[in-house]
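haha ok so turns out i had the wrong file open the whole time. this is the CORRECT one, sorry everyone. sequence first:
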Amino acid sequence: MKTIFATLAALLVSVSAFAADLQVGTTANYTVTATQAGATMTGALNYVVTGYTATTNMYQVQSTFTSGAGSQVQLQDIDGKNLNIGPGILSNCAMYGGTLESVTVAAGTFSTCHLVNVDAAQNLVGHYWVGDVAFNFVKLVETEGPQTTTMELAN
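then structure:
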């Protein structure tokens, strides 16, 4: 099974969607489920802002994926110019090709913009529910070939 952690960490960097009040210590916790060929793996993904460098406007983010197989930790630098994208997407949802939807996950019920991305070259279909929350993903479901990965905001 493809490394879920690498996929989710790459997704975080590619979208770079953060809430407006991102500060050192801001966290987001997600439940993760991946299914492939009848096998299911569950785990937890935690993002935390561990630092900020004002001179470069870069945030340091630690991602930790934990499952029955153990934990994987990754550190990333995220450019601060990418802040506030999530609330902007939510308020301009139709312009981004999305639809406004109310989504309920373990962390509560949220107003979201549901975006769909189809990448035929990589056989990837992604559904992303973006809201005004830290790291802006309330829920995502990605299907790549035979593997489906679901990530939902836990708290």
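The chain is about 10% helix and 55% strand.
again sry for the mixup
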